[in-house]
Design goal:
By secondary structure, the protein is α/β, with parallel strands linked by helices. It folds into 2 domains: 8-144 and 262-305, Rossmann fold, CATH 3.40.50; 146-258, Phosphofructokinase domain (Rossmann fold, 3-Layer(aba) Sandwich). It has 12 helices and 11 strands. It starts with 7 loop residues before the first strand and ends with a helix. It binds adenosine-5'-triphosphate (ATP) and 6-O-phosphono-beta-D-fructofuranose.
Length: 324
């Protein structure tokens, strides 16, 4: 049922890019077209909205991008949008382009931006969770998380080969600004000897115990989340303090985790969430994020889409067992 007067949707990607964003754009435009709704892409997130950089989108072009990482609309972190003056300019641009609904693909910062924007702009917004960090409530998975974990695992597997050949300790830092989801998924997936995440303090004590008895007769892999308060450098010097004989190297995987082809899960998630965003607008819904909870589509108001710092209890329990 179409309860809205939606004729022209503006869609953009914002914050860090994540694999699956192009699939979400494809899902959005395909379903909009099915309902006779025009879609414009807003380039470079809030920056392009402020500057009025809009381009027409067609599903035929986007169909060719589903397998590609990154975002064809480009993305940005926008200082200007943090100020009300920037948001006023963005509102003018939307009006000048006759946009009557907006679909935003980004992380929790992007949704905080929309909440602030909704104070001066009455256009309905629907969000799609797109960040490799998986740190948003209201969805089991964010777009790009699964691909990023697969990339991390692929790379750590390779590090394991060289670590085992030299009997070295490797500290591998993975992404996750404030959250340990990538670390725990990739660390468990590679059979790491220790996993350090921002949500736990015990993990470091367990590591120190283990490394004290380490006899340099095998490889030893420590996966550290970049959000962990200690950081790879400090962890390395503590290990050296406890066991001076270890031959130790640090590898920071960095932005390689954000790139590459989206996994099948992220392609499917993008298409489902893009489609769901348009349907939510057609039902007259606004200022909420579409997500998938227990494999069912869900809609959560932006106010409740707070940053989910905490890795859930089940995973924390696994961390304790497998960190021993
Ligand atoms: N409180 C806020 N008020 C207005 N705009 C905001 C606010 N918080 C964030 N934004 C806008 O949203 C943009 C994206 O946020 P941010 O850089 O935190 O990335 P994100 O969406 O959380 O994605 P990622 O998880 O990939 O980093 C910011 O650059 C800024 O323009
Ligand atoms: O690409 P930038 O702006 O350096 O941001 C890096 C941050 O973005 C993320 O990749 C999330 O998109 C975090 O894991 C990381 O801390």
């Amino acid at each position: 049922m179409d309860n809205s007067k939606t004729k022209h949707i503006g869609v953009f990607t914002s914050g860090g890019d994540s694999p699956g964003m192009n699939a979400a754009l494809y899902g959005t435009v395909k379903v909009a077209e099915q309902h006779g709704i025009r879609v414009s892409g807003i380039l470079k997130g809030y920056e392009g909205m402020i500057d009025g950089h809009f381009i027409p989108l067609e599903s035929q072009q986007l169909q060719k991008t589903v397998h590609r990482g990154g975002t064809v609309l480009k993305t940005a972190r926008s200082e200007r949008f943090m100020a009300v003056e920037g948001r006023q300019l963005a509102f003018k641009s939307l009006q000048n382009n006759d946009i009557d609904a907006v679909v935003a693909i980004g992380g929790d910062g992007t949704f905080k931006g929309l909440l602030a924007f909704s104070e001066i702009c009455e256009i309905p917004f629907i969000g799609i969770p797109g960040t490799i960090d998986n740190d948003i409530s209201g969805t089991d998975y964010t777009l790009g998380f699964d691909s990023a974990v697969n990339t991390a695992i692929e790379n750590i597997d390779k590090i394991k080969d060289t670590a085992e050949s030299h009997n070295r300790v490797f500290i591998v830092e993975v992404m996750g600004r404030d959250s340990g989801y990538i670390a725990i998924h990739s660390g468990l997936g590679v059979g790491a000897d220790a996993i350090l995440i921002p949500e736990s303090g015990e993990d470091f004590l367990q590591l120190l115990k283990k490394v004290k008895d380490y006899k340099s007769e095998d490889g030893f892999i420590v996966v550290v989340s970049e959000g962990d308060e200690l950081g790879a450098g400090l962890v390395a010097s503590k290990i050296k303090e406890i066991n001076s004989k270890v031959d130790l190297r640090i590898t920071k995987l960095g932005h390689v985790q954000r790139g590459g082809s989206p996994s099948s899960l992220d392609r499917m998630l993008g298409i489902r969430l893009g489609s769901a965003a348009v349907r939510a607008l057609l039902l007259g819904r606004r200022n909420a994020m579409v997500g998938v909870l227990d494999n069912q589509l869900s809609l959560t108001p932006f106010e409740q889409v707070v940053k989910q710092h905490q890795v859930n209890d089940e995973l924390q329990e696994l961390l304790k067992i497998f960190g021993k």
